[in-house]
Amino acid sequence: MNIFFTVLERVGAEVIECACVIELPELKGRERLEGKPLYVLVEYR
């Protein structure tokens, strides 16, 4: 997700929180969010 943050910040956006439909904890994406809140509908283990 860091590349998304970089692209959004280049065009002047400020990322303050994130949301997704399905989280796959084994991919450790939450840890790459730089402390931003994450909202998830389903966590798939």
Automatic annotation (TrEMBL):
Catalytic activity: AMP + diphosphate = 5-phospho-alpha-D-ribose 1-diphosphate + adenine
Annotated pathway: Purine metabolism; AMP biosynthesis via salvage pathway; AMP from adenine: step 1/1
EC code: 2.4.2.7
GO biological process, one term: purine ribonucleoside salvage
InterPro entries, A to Z: Adenine_PRTase, PRTase-like
GO molecular function, one term: adenine phosphoribosyltransferase activity
A single cellular component GO annotation: cytoplasm
Domain of life: Eukaryota
Positions of transmembrane segments: none
Keywords assigned by UniProt, alphabetized: Cytoplasm, Glycosyltransferase, Purine salvage, Transferase
Subcellular location: Cytoplasm
Subunit structure of this chain's protein: Homodimer.
PANTHER family per record: ADENINE PHOSPHORIBOSYLTRANSFERASE, PHOSPHORIBOSYLTRANSFERASE DOMAIN-CONTAINING PROTEIN
Family: Belongs to the purine/pyrimidine phosphoribosyltransferase family.
Protein name: adenine phosphoribosyltransferase
Species assigned in the record: Arabidopsis thaliana
